Structures are given as C-alpha cells and as structure tokens.
Amino acid sequence: MRTANSNQGQSIVPDTNEINDYIKEYLRYSNYSNTLECFDAEIKSKQVSNKMLNKQQVIKQTGDDMPRIFQLLKSDNIKTKREINLEKEQKQFNKKYQQILQAGRQIFSVSINLLQLLHSLKETAKNENLSETLENYKIQLGKYHKVIINEGKPEGTELITEQVMHEHKTKLFKNYQDKHVDGMIEVLLSLRVNALQIAPELRKNLVYELIRNDVFNIEATDKFDFVVHLLDINNQSLRHAITSLISVISSTLRGVEYLTYNGNMIIIEKIIKILKEQENGSVTQRFCLAILQKASIKDTVIPSYVQNEMIQWIINLIQKSVNSKIHVFCLDFASATLANIIHTPYTLQYLEHQPRFAHQVMEQLLKFIKDQIQVSVLMHILICLSYLSKENFAKQMEECRFVDRISQFVEFYSVINTENEAAEIDKKTVLDLCAHMFHPKDTSLDNSETLELNELKTEDRIREYENEQGELIFECFQDEVS
C-alpha cells in the first residue's frame, strides 16, 4: 500500500528540475538577467535544495496547496476532449463489431437448421435438382462461414484451382442449357464468393484467371450470346448474381476489354438497360453503376453511354437525391461516371454540336453546387464543370453566368462552418479543387504548378480502380440477398 501511495504522490508533482528550467528559460527570454543569476545561484545552493526537497514532500501530502505551475505541468497528462470522444467511438465500434459477428453466427445457425429441414424433405421429393441445389448451398454457406469465423479477414492465399474454375464453368453452362435458373444463380454466386474470400493482393490475378478461362464463353465463340441471354432473363436474383460477377471482372482494364471484346458494346448496353429498370438505390442498380463507372476508363465505351442518354439519367438521379434519399454508393459512382463521360473528346464534341443540351447540362450542374449534396458528388460535379469551362462553350458560360456563380460558390463555401476535422479536410479539398480548375494562374489558394489551362490531367481523373498495381476492391453490400 505504501508503494502505491508513494507512486500516486509522485504522479501529482512534476519534476522540479523541469520546472526550474522553464522558469530560467522565461527569465532569459524576458531579459531578467539579475533575477536569473540570483535564481540560478539559489538553486545551486545546498541549503535551498534542501528547502525545495522539504517543500516538495509537503506538497505531496497537501496537493490542494500546490502552485498553479505544478498543476499545469504535472506528469499525468490530461486527455483532450477529442481523445476521450475517440475512445468512446472506438468502444462503440467494437461493440457493434461484436454484435455483427454474433448476428452472423445466429444467421448461420438458422441456415444450418433450414438445410437440415430441406435434407429431411429431399427423400420424399426425389428431385435431383434439389439435391444439387442443397450441395451448392452447403458449399456457399461454408465459404461465408469461414469469413465469419475469421472475423472478416480473408483467408485465401491461393487462386481458384484450374479444376474448380472448369467445374464452375461446366455447371454454369449445364444449368443454362437445362434452363435451371437457381442452379445458374448458385454457380455465379459461388464464383463471386471465391472472389470476395481471396486475399486482396491476389484479386487482380483472380480476375485475369476468369478472363483466361473465358467464363462467359466470349472469346471462344466470338459472340456474346451466353452472357446476353443471362442478362435478358427477368429474374432479380439472377440479375444480382450476374451483375455482381461482371462487376468483379470489370475491376481491371483487361476485364473491361474482355467485356467489350472486339469493340462490341452489347454488354454495356444491356447493363444500362437493366440499370434504368431498377428501383433507385437497389443492390442491382449499385452493381450496374459500379460496372459502368469502371468501364468508363476506356474512352471507346463512352459513345454508348451518350447514345443511351446516361448523361441525362445521372443528372436526374442527382436531382432526385436533393429531395429524397438515394443510396450514397449510387450517387458517388454515378457522378464519377458523369465526370469520366464529359471528359472525353467524343462527349465534348457531341455537346458542342448540341448547344441547347450543353446549356441544360451546364445550368443543372451549376444548380447542384448550391444544393446540400455529399462532398464526393460535389467534387465530381465541379470536375464536370471544369471540363465545360472551355472557349468552345463560351456562349453557354455567358448565358449561365458561369464565372459569377463559381465565384459565389467559392465565396460561400470558404466561410461554411465545419463540425469536425474530417469536414474541414473535405472543405479544404473542395476549395483546392476550385483553385486548380477555375483559377489556374492564381497560386494564392494552392501551390501546385502541375495543372494548366483549366484542364485536369487524365491520370488525375476520379477513377476508383485506376491504379492497376494496387489492391482491387470488390463491392459487397450489407443488404444483399442471396
């Protein structure tokens, strides 16, 4: 007990030598040379040293009488309000994390019970398709179970074997020929589960393996019949399964080239059609937007986007989000796609020949920057506007009061209040973006000298997967339904 009390006492009072150094530093800075000499001499005196030692012992016993300097410099650091809040948030996140894991375990328990019930009915049903479906369910359930028991950490260190890949492709075609929709769904989801489960650093190679094995039989037949027929089947579960796998493949440039083999845009056109048929914010719509955003890195696909009225569709989606809730993923990827569309020479030339439509697009985008929209969407809209701030659109810029409205936005955005550090960083990023794109010769807001003539370099465009050397991100949403 004495040791504990002694430690507590010493934790209250800081090192007296440290305090003396602070005082001497202050006296020296303020040119109190005489006082400094006297103070220094007194410290060196053995008599004063004993006095200070005795005084320190008294302070240990009567902490309420401590000088304010001791309280300011005591060795126990007081946590800041921000540190306390971060600790609270961390505890809440850990609690939610454990709740999610527990919920996952409960779901698997229910799923296993349902599988056992189906097995008991299998004998009476005498249905071969039911037996195969049950086996597929068990395989898929086992893979998801590994994700749960590993607490979300991917355990895959190897790619899918050649044999497994071949078996999946064979089963997929057999189910397709037998018109067994549930069987096709199971195979497609199984391939995707393998993709989600594999280690991030191996994902790119997995995509290349899917292409090499020609999973959609595109290169072998020089046709898109198989995948197009899958996309044409009006079954929501199948569309979810096929679009999620196409999204995996489109995560690399080579994957986009596979999906647009020989310049054929039929898959892109089908995805756009499915996208427009979906309820806003739905899971399938998210996968369609993910595919289209990733594919938009390739300029040759952009004419299909423009001809299928994707510019107006995206603008309408953002407009709807002003007054109603739209999934954040849809808005983020849709606006990023819009930036990639407008950036291309094809689109700029198209808008140049459609002056009224160019005016409508510019006017609507300028209206958006005044609305309460998420920061990532705002950045994408500003990038779109920068692509339109060219001499070719001088008439539209004058009609829309482009320069004045951008200046008003910057003035307004410069004084908005931010609630936290993250919001302050977002604010600075938006203002820096404006400085780059709309004031290229003004270095007062930003020191970068890499941008010229209102033109962002191609490699600086907003592309979530552009860096092919990095780890790929495969979309996975909490509200997906198998």
Overview of the structural elements:
It comes from Paramecium pentaurelia. Pfam families: ARMC9_LisH. This is LisH domain-containing protein ARMC9. The longest helix has 45 residues, at 81-125. This protein is an all-alpha fold. It contains 25 helices and no strands. Mean pLDDT is 79; it is low at 1-12 and 441-469. The chain has helices at residues 2-12, 16-29, 33-44, 46-61, 68-73, 81-125, 128-149, 162-177, 181-197, 203-212, 218-221, 225-232, 236-249, 253-259, 266-277, 283-295, 302-307, 310-323, 328-343, 345-352, 355-368, 375-388, 394-399, 402-414, 421-438.
Give the distance, in angstroms, between the N- and C-terminal Cα atoms. Answer: 61 Å
Specify the helix fraction band.
55-70%
Number of helices: 25
Overall average pLDDT = 79
Total beta strand runs: 0
Unreliable stretches: 1-12, 441-469
Computed Rg: 32 Å
Biggest β-sheet: count, sense, barrel?
Answer: none
Which structural class fits the helix and strand makeup?
mainly alpha
Shape, please?
flat
Order of helices and strands: HHHHHHHHHHHHHHHHHHHHHHHHH
Strand content: under 5%
In short:
It comes from Paramecium pentaurelia. This protein has 25 helices and no strands.
Q: Which key phrases capture this entry?
A:
70% helix, LisH domain-containing protein ARMC9, 482 residues, mainly alpha, 25 helices
Topology:
Layout: H1 2-12, H2 16-29, H3 33-44, H4 46-61, H5 68-73, H6 81-125, H7 128-149, H8 162-177, H9 181-197, H10 203-212, H11 218-221, H12 225-232, H13 236-249, H14 253-259, H15 266-277, H16 283-295, H17 302-307, H18 310-323, H19 328-343, H20 345-352, H21 355-368, H22 375-388, H23 394-399, H24 402-414, H25 421-438
